[in-house]
Automatic annotation (TrEMBL):
This is S1 RNA-binding domain-containing protein. Residues 6-75 form the S1 motif domain. SUPFAM superfamilies: Nucleic acid-binding proteins. Pfam families: S1. InterPro entries: NA-bd_OB-fold, Ribos_protein_bS1-like, S1_domain. Binds mRNA; thus facilitating recognition of the initiation point. It is needed to translate mRNA with a short Shine-Dalgarno (SD) purine-rich sequence. One of its GO terms (biological process) is translation. It comes from the Bacteria. Gene3D superfamilies: Nucleic acid-binding proteins. One of its GO terms (molecular function) is mRNA binding. The lineage of its organism: Bacteria, Bacillati, Bacillota, Bacilli, Lactobacillales.
Amino acid sequence: MRYRIGDIVEGTVTGLQPYGAFVQLDQTTQGLVHISECRSAYIKQVQDELKVGQKIQVMILDIDEYDQKISLSQRSIQDLQDIKDADFTEKHNFESTYHVYWTNQHLNIGFETIKKHLNQSLQEALVKLRQ
């Protein structure tokens, strides 16, 4: 079977390692679910989440073009389901939302800081370019 990135397929867990779980997708194809792709929360051990022989649904994240190794994710499917279940019908009043600014919005300094250090910055840039 030919797999594509983004496909959701069912497979069987065939092996567990500290770094993830190997999943058999068909008779000739196997992929790896990295421990970070099991679910969104922290997982101490893969064995706490998956068992050998367990059938799971996974999303194909990546297929290495040279050795055809397949990276799988169980977390992506859960995230997709959370998005589908989310209620986006509630309207939000974005005008009253608190905004975070990188500078103090009460100070009106404009470009004074840049103007003050412009010559020094230009000299440093010219020295680096001439190296």
